């Protein structure tokens, strides 16, 4: 199959180009896809990591000791150029309000190596303070090109900085309002004018639909501790060479070794106890893999109000392994749920150790836009720092997951098993359902394909983790 940026006749499937790598041409010996993890794809389209480069390498900085007083300093770290061809613009916005305050600041010409102090009076305005009282409020500064250059067009973002002006507002603990009914088969059901929900006999939320909307869940909301390994977690194309000494570098001390040997992809919750206490549905499971190896406990508390479901869960993981890929929940959705809106870090994918280039904001995306066509299929599309996630079915349905703290999410059109099994992106087969992942903690990606693993602060050790959502209609 043709490869390279000029391979116009390359076979495509679902819009994914059929790139090939070592070993695909009968070439032996080979390093297969090592090292196929640069900043651009073969057609020079950008990978999400390029946004990280823009941010960490930017030569214009904006700093403030106290952003709420409206005083900032712009520093020109360029060696030779002034800011003559740059414009400074701002957007002030709140996660709980659609309104936005925006404008342009007179930058003047700041010479190379010099700085400029400036003030932003809008931060002291009543409009800005109203937003700050409403919820988490941020201000985003963007330095953009004023005129075309040989390397980029006018409007290209040259540098940016973001500051928090007010923190999220904590909400009171919900009060049970809806009647909880237990059936003879051990299931629990709730039905109000606003929604209906069902918890199956295994103690898992298996049905949720809001008035006038289609069913959300195609499978129960359950525990997930596994991700399809990234190339930095371990190189799957070399798994057939684990017994060859010359390939030891590719296998020793790789993160995915314990994940695979302990079969994290088979971990399921086993019901131990379920009861109603003060209007809450309290559920406890133990976590086991296919070999009945124990990984700890999973506890859920569900509070049903008249128009929303309040869901809390705790993962208490033991030391069976000391470094997990993720800790969270997953479920499958009907294919119609194929778009989302979220308030979190974006717009591109980002991970705990690769999010400096992501901006906090309000973003919309389809499931296809969330996909990243890594040539060798692997985990993709994570968004971190998320406070609110709305799922849409393309018709009349909208369901919102709101979190008082932060969580991560991903929405995939391929199963983890499919991503792991296939060696080329164009060979992937879409499932009959979509896959939603809601995570309390996710491991960083590091650089262990040919360098150091992710730093300790970005690993996921055994311990206790929490997730807390209010789930309601967003229509």
How far apart lie the N and C ends?
47 Å
Mean pLDDT: 93
Order of helices and strands: EEHEEEEEHEEEEEEEHEEEEEEEHEEHEE
Helix content: under 10%
Overall morphology: globular
Rg, alpha carbons: 24 Å
Q: Strand count, sense and closure of the main sheet? A: 12 strands, antiparallel
* Uncertain residue ranges: 1-7
The percent range for strand residues is 35-45%
**What is the count of helical runs?**
5
Q: What structural category characterises the helix and strand content?
A: mainly beta
Compute the number of strand runs. 25
Description:
The chain has 475 residues and is mainly β. Helix content is 7%, strand content 39%. The protein has helices spanning 49-56, 126-134, 256-261, 367-370, 416-421, and strands at residues 12-13, 16-17, 60-63, 71-76, 86-94, 97-105, 115-119, 137-145, 157-166, 181-182, 188-191, 195-199, 205-210, 222-224, 268-277, 280-288, 294-304, 308-317, 326-334, 339-346, 359-366, 383-392, 398-412, 433-442, 463-473. Strands 14, 15, 16, 17, 18, 19, 20, 21, 22, 23, 24 and 25 form a twelve-stranded antiparallel sheet that branches. The chain has a four-stranded antiparallel sheet with strand order 6-5-8-9. A four-stranded antiparallel sheet has the order 10-11-12-13, with no helix packed on it. A hairpin with a 5-residue loop joins strand 22 (383-392) and strand 23. It is globular, with a radius of gyration of 24 Å. Residues 1-7 have low confidence and may be disordered.
